[in-house]
């Protein structure tokens, strides 16, 4: 199994345990892929795009009440929003910045009934 396949499995496993921030995914992709050198954004967003398109993860924001508000956007629009936010930062996102991820199963198991929300402005 190559590094990016390993990273996908780790992302899914961690998203089943807890909400995962974009910053964590970036760090994992860097560790697992020998190809990232300067391409962290592309590699990270490509992996996330695949997971979102397959419906394996959800993107949004956790709330202080413990819900997870899913962005009401297509996977492509979600990826573009993350790319734009990342570029506006001018650096890699840090804890709490840009986006979070969870799995549909974790959201259902935790009875997280948060609504679908538009992208943050």
What structural class do you assign from the helix and strand content?
alpha+beta
Enter the CATH topology name. Answer: NMB0513-like
What is the rounded Rg?
14 Å
Order of helices and strands: HEHHEEHEHE
Biggest β-sheet description = 5 strands, mixed
Give the helix proportion (percent range): 40-55%
Q: Architecture, CATH level 2?
A: Orthogonal Bundle
Distance between the termini: 39 Å
**Tally of extended strands?**
5
DSSP helix count?
5
Give the overall average pLDDT.
Answer: 85
What fraction strand?
A: 5-15%
Low-confidence parts: none
**Number of self-contained structural domains:** 1
Cα shape:
globular
Spatial strand sequence of the major β-sheet? 1-4-2-3-5
CATH class category label: Mainly Alpha
Entry keywords:
globular; single chain; five-stranded mixed beta sheet; 121 residues; alpha+beta; 5 helices; NMB0513-like
Report on this model:
The structure is a single chain. The chain has helices spanning 3-17, 22-32, 40-53, 75-89, 104-109, and strands at residues 20-21, 58-62, 68-71, 100-102, 116-117. The chain has a five-stranded mixed β-sheet. The mean pLDDT is 85. Helix 1 (3-17) packs antiparallel against helix 2 (22-32), helix 2 crosses helix 3 (40-53) and helix 3 (40-53) runs antiparallel to helix 4. The chain has a single domain (3-117), classed as NMB0513-like, CATH 1.10.3510. Strand 2 and strand 3 (68-71) form a beta hairpin. The longest helix has 15 residues, at 3-17. The protein is α+β, with helices and mostly antiparallel strands. Helix content is 50%, strand content 13%.
């Amino acid at each position: 199994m190559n590094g990016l396949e390993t990273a996908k499995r780790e992302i899914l496993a961690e998203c089943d345990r807890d909400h995962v921030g974009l910053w964590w995914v970036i760090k994992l992709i860097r560790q697992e892929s020998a190809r990232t050198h300067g391409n962290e954004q592309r590699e990270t967003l490509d992996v996330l795009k695949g997971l979102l398109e397959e419906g394996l993860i959800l993107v949004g924001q956790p709330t202080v009440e413990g819900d997870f508000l899913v962005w009401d956007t297509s996977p492509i629009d979600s990826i573009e929003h993350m790319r734009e936010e990342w570029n506006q930062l001018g650096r890699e996102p840090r804890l709490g910045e840009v986006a979070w991820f969870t799995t549909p199963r974790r959201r259902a198991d935790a009875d997280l009934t948060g609504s679908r929300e538009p992208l943050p402005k």
